[in-house]
Amino acid sequence: MATVLAGPAGATLCADHGADVVKLELPDGSDALRHMQPVKENIPLWWKVANRGKRGITLDVRKPKGREIFLAMLPQFDVLVENFRTGTMDRWGLDIETLHRANPRLVVVRLTGFGQTGPYRGRPGYARIFEAMSGFTNLTGTPDGPPMHSNFPIGDAVAGLFCAFSIAAEIARLRGDPQAGGVEVDLSATEALFRLLEPLPVEHEQLGQVRRRAGNSTTYTAPSNMYRSVEGIYFSLVASSQSVYVRLCEALERTEWIADPRFATNPKRVQNMQALDFELAAWFEARPFEAISARLEQYDIPFTKVYSIEDIEVDPHFQARGAIIRLPDPDYGSVPAPCIVPRVAGREMPVPRSGPAVGEHNAEVYAAFGVGELELEALRAEGVV
């Protein structure tokens, strides 16, 4: 019963790997993701791929009858994912004690912007808020420019990964101990992003450093930057290990850089990054990308052109791996989406169907709990489903 992206993303990852996921929505279909671009002819395309592999039902748990049905269903589920503001479900009479009375082994994942405790626990949260507050956005952009967000809600995606990880970890714990009880997982999306930024606290305490924006370069290894060919093709290159750096010097026929005291070691290269990048940029900007690519491949240098979705679609490696799969879909026959990750050797991963329409599986799911067609119609008339 999570909305938009972070919580649903975690559940979708579980669905990709075989979990039976039922997505609960309000009867009016007001989830913001159903109205977020891309939308084609009033059909929500993002919804189709973000909620793939799930069955969809509607239920208003704020109504007494809806709450009663919800609690009756819980014993048949292992996990509940919700992302309402802290305290919201308590006000609806669905506090953790009530949930665990209904199912003592239920794993309840509460995914919020700031967690269940602390002075910010009741604040609304969105991906860009998590990104900015975690310290992540402060690392993105040019040194003399403003902090920058990506044109994708990375904060939601990272929180979704932690959501799926939380579910897997708790299910493993429960299966290892038949007597173990359910738990309440307090997942803060802001903390999830901050967890990835491991060196920030220790470098601040021990070295007095505050890591900041560095454009496309880094402040911890060099060379590692974005470069451009003569015809304007951008590509990313990393040659930070000593052996790769030596090969890069050989590829560019600049072997004098290997022993140059400014560039001889990674710490020295970081100290003199601007001088090194000036030399590299000049070399690359004088040559076409095809010649650069051939040279770098010959010397086994890690690099890649910056891909758009058009590049991904035609790349032979992505094609050989089947990185884009087609989800069966009632509106378009099928729609493209990223493949299931990770792959499991020797296991055929079934292709999930696209995300459900509002209440698409009401009859199927509720029938399994003894709710017949006449009762379902009455509930629909009352606005419960």
Structural overview:
The chain is α/β, with parallel strands linked by helices and 385 residues long. 41% of the residues lie in helices and 14% in strands. It has a 3-stranded parallel sheet. A hairpin with a 2-residue loop joins strand 2 (39-40) and strand 3. Helix 1 packs across helix 7 (154-176), helix 6 (127-134) packs across helix 8 and helix 7 crosses helix 8 (189-196). The longest helix is centred in the middle third of the chain and has 23 residues, at 154-176. It starts with 5 loop residues before the first helix and ends with a helix.
In summary, what is this structure?
This protein has 18 helices and twelve strands. With 385 residues, it is an alpha/beta fold.
- How far do the termini sit from each other? 14 Å
Counting H and I runs of at least 4 residues, what is the number of helices?
A: 18
How are the strands of the largest sheet arranged?
5-6-7
Q: Helix- and strand-based class?
A: alpha/beta
**Helix/strand order:** HEEEHEHEHHEHHEHHEEHHHHHEHHEEHH
List the helices and strands and how they pair.
Blueprint: H1 6-16, E1 21-25, E2 39-40, E3 43-44, H2 45-50, E4 54-58, H3 64-73, E5 79-82, H4 88-91, H5 96-102, E6 107-112, H6 127-134, H7 154-176, E7 183-188, H8 189-196, H9 199-207, E8 224-228, E9 234-238, H10 242-251, H11 256-259, H12 266-271, H13 273-285, H14 289-298, E10 303-305, H15 309-314, H16 316-321, E11 324-329, E12 333-338, H17 362-367, H18 373-381
Parallel strand pairs: 1-4, 5-6, 6-7
Antiparallel strand pairs: 2-3, 8-9, 9-10, 11-12
